[in-house]
Design a protein that fits this description.
By secondary structure, the chain is an alpha+beta fold. It is built from four helices and four strands; from the N terminus they run H-E-E-H-H-H-E-E. The chain is elongated.
Length: 131
């Protein structure tokens, strides 16, 4: 049977109920290696549509989607890469540019840094604000 004939003969399978956290939803059956591309695509769209309606964490959504599509290892690898990128760059002070310092009222403090280095704040001390 050629691709076009297979497409015309395609009949979607019945949905199945799965548990996702505390919730249950109807999704397409788990993807198998013998499914043709259009059936895999159909499974993807039907599963994503069902999962997006649930009030769940994005990580749980990705894990469930990866499990249903039989690509859990790929999803885990992509999640690891993004979390690793986040950890490396979120707290990287080399990527931080200080534009200005503000007091508790929101007013810009022009004399808040030490002379010669605009990224180092003056030390805090007891006394008047102008000291």
């Amino acid at each position: 049977m050629d691709h076009q004939a297979a497409l015309e003969a395609f009949t979607p399978k019945e949905t199945v109920t799965i548990s996702v956290g505390r919730y249950h939803t109807q999704v397409y059956v788990k993807v198998t290696p013998d499914m043709l591309d259009f059936e895999r695509s159909f499974a993807f769209h039907q599963t994503v549509s069902a999962l997006k309606l649930l009030p769940i964490d994005p990580q749980l959504l990705l894990d469930t989607l990866g499990n249903q599509l039989n690509v859990s290892m790929v999803v885990d690898g992509i999640k690891f890469d993004w979390l690793n990128y986040y950890r490396k760059n979120w707290y990287n002070m080399a990527h931080l540019t200080l534009l200005s310092f503000h007091n508790s009222a929101g007013t810009i403090m022009n004399n808040a840094t030490i002379p010669g280095n605009v990224h180092v704040l003056k030390p805090v001390q007891d006394g008047l604000l102008n000291d």
